[in-house]
């Protein structure tokens, strides 16, 4: 017997929560002033206002090829601000988050990995006006004729297709190649489809909703009868990235022999895309932009833990930022004066060479106060569905100011489990004390190692 189970209402939050699930935006008013507690953010008003100005510059397309550095101690909201920038820009603007160590790979050299992520974060919006015939299929009759090459078989000379829309019907006489496309799409009478006039490509949209009551159980998507005339002009907007174009042009098409078929089936090895190919793609993109067919959408490349990059990548980053087509680069670092990776004697702020520091707009994030930590923990507890008593909140806020905000937040989930085990309605101070005894923070762990000989 087929098992049918009812899907529970998704309004109740049982799904997994990530570290920044609660961040919904920068939390600025219409004048760009940061509210104290808004959109999941608490405090960091100056940093959020600075990020708000950056968002306005990106939207005005006056920021391309420039870079920003988010600098501050651990757990001061650097990654949260970068994600909030992406929320403010919306889903149409590409946002590519990576970590500094991601660029080191055995298969691809680090500069190539950086350029690949650069290209991923530059979008291209292509607008096309296409002539289409769209409607519900009322007739589908292939017309056969004698095979001109002789023999007994017959060939399809043309196909008669009847299409119906809300404003009328049309009968089309189409090429046999289009009939093959119709068969591939598995179009039958009663389906809604559209045919592109210039390319002859066929797309099945779904089953007409006039047939929705035909069966009770049918794995089918029903669509309404198309409005307007059968023959119409349709504007199609396509969003893709420059990396998508690079990959599409780099992949060889191959012939029809067995070996090329095998090559398509096997998982292709990750290969580097040449600079020459990228320049050719750029030329075509520039031509489309000049014609007004396409529009460039510079996105955001977010590189967290930027001190992990070495001197070679920093040098390449300088050059990549000067390219004619470049995204906005947001860097984040929690280091102070430190040696630039790949060198022995160059000490620089945040582990970034001085020539790149000169190019950066630096946004500083400050440590949170006890009150701010309390509000953040309260918000996270709500997101995770954990009731916490006011005394326990005060205790966690004090822990956060003494050790780190991350440690205080990490204590929430185990404290919740211990609280349930003890039968408490909400997390109590005793539950947090027990969780602290089970899980050490970095400072206490260091003390244990220093005071104990032969520990490891």
Automatic annotation (TrEMBL):
GO MF, one annotated term: ATP hydrolysis activity
The record's keywords, sorted A to Z, are:
Activator, ATP-binding, Chromatin regulator, DNA damage, DNA repair, Helicase, Hydrolase, Nucleotide-binding, Nucleus, Transcription, Transcription regulation
Provide the GO biological process annotations.
box C/D snoRNP assembly; chromatin organization; DNA repair
Alphabetical list of InterPro entries matching this protein = AAA+_ATPase, P-loop_NTPase, RuvB-like, RuvB-like_C, RuvBL1/2_DNA/RNA_bd_dom, TIP49_P-loop
Recorded GO cellular component terms are: Ino80 complex; R2TP complex; Swr1 complex
Q: One Pfam family name from the record?
A: TIP49
According to its UniProt record, which reaction does this protein catalyse?
A: ATP + H2O = ADP + phosphate + H(+)
Chief location: nucleus
Q: Enumerate the spans annotated as AAA+ ATPase domain.
A: 64-367
Q: Where in the cell is it found?
A: Nucleus
EC number of the protein: 3.6.4.12
Q: What class of enzyme is it?
A: hydrolase
According to the lineage, what is the superkingdom? Eukaryota
- Stated role: DNA helicase participates in several chromatin remodeling complexes, including the SWR1 and the INO80 complexes.
Q: What is the similarity comment for this entry? A: Belongs to the RuvB family.
What is the protein name given in its UniProt record? RuvB-like helicase
Name the source organism: Cyberlindnera fabianii
